[in-house]
Amino acid sequence: MRLPVGSPGVRRASGLAGPRRDCACAAAGVLHLRFPSPCPPPGLRADGTMFTSTGSSGLYKAPLSKSLLLVPGALSLVLALLLPHCQKFFVYDLHAVKNDFQIWRLICGRIICLDLKDTFCSSLLIYNFRIFERRYGSRKFASFLLGAWVLSALFDFILVEAMQYSLGITVASNLPSGFLAPVFALFVPFYCSIPRVQVAQILGPLSITNKTLIYILGLQLFTSGSYIWIVAISGLISGMCYDRKMFQVHKVLCIPSWMARFFSWTVEPMFSSSEPTSEARVGMGATVDIQRQQRMEQLDRQLMLSQFAQVRRQRQQQGGMINWNRLFPPLRQRRNINYQDGRQSEQQASPPPEVSEEQVARLMEMGFSRGDALEALRASNNDLNVATNFLLQH
Questions:
Q1: Residues linked to residue 50 through DSSP beta bridges, in sequence order
Q2: Which of 37, 102, 325, 338 has the fewest CB atoms in 10 Å of its CB?
């Protein structure tokens, strides 16, 4: 199908319409942003809207994240609204643990938030960090949370004792309750492995990136209480220890395979989510022109996804690597901003640019092979955002 040169789909595909592509599905902010997208991956909303740093496919393939959203949140609401007299059993009291040997408080006091603000902020962060469960798998993700949860309890004691004996500052006996330390620990892989993509420029060097709002949300949680900074610091330290595999803690504090199989048979079916539909919704613009452009963009996406599915089937039959150049012919012309002739043949396009080794290294750090990284970057004209999006989704 050939589109007219002046149509919105062609202008957008040739790089003349709108800003650069939206951030990768692993790194959008908690904000509804609309950006023209030449070929959105499956799971991206049809209207180009992204809500989280991890795409818009909901909690699909993230049963552990879903359980952490529902169960502690529901218990927190029940304790706050229906059973306030039972909150005393879920207070995170380090003095009671140390002096009265109430070890059970290390468990009860570090699972359920007694402050609804902390419940809300931590739930939003867990939802945004569900990308790590999809990338690592539920077992490895659960092992990371378990390791951070256990290590942070040790660091809580160390920080409190250091404040008291070194600086002479007596910390209150009660620290903020809830599953907070592992949430802060997830900021370590979020900072290290999620690419930073600029979304908007503010003033000079200041800009909004795809990770800005996640950090703002974490800062909101960090400042929600008097002593929550202790829990936050211990969580970050434990996250660094586990992520960097210090002292082989990842081998000691991990979920056994038999336990993972048991929970996958019993608990996972209750929290599993169905695969999001691949049908694209037609946006409702404010004017007829906007609606026409939205329909044209939807048609472009359907054509591109159909082409991609065909190439994937050929790859499965023949083996080998996907020819990304067949999927993104307009992207090779992206540097040519003054390119006006939409009917110029693909053979006349400029040769693909040199691939940046730095971007290849960043993709390889995310777990992709060098060959896939090179092909994706060449096809996307060294656009790390586009390359990351498709490598994550496929």
A1: 33
A2: 338
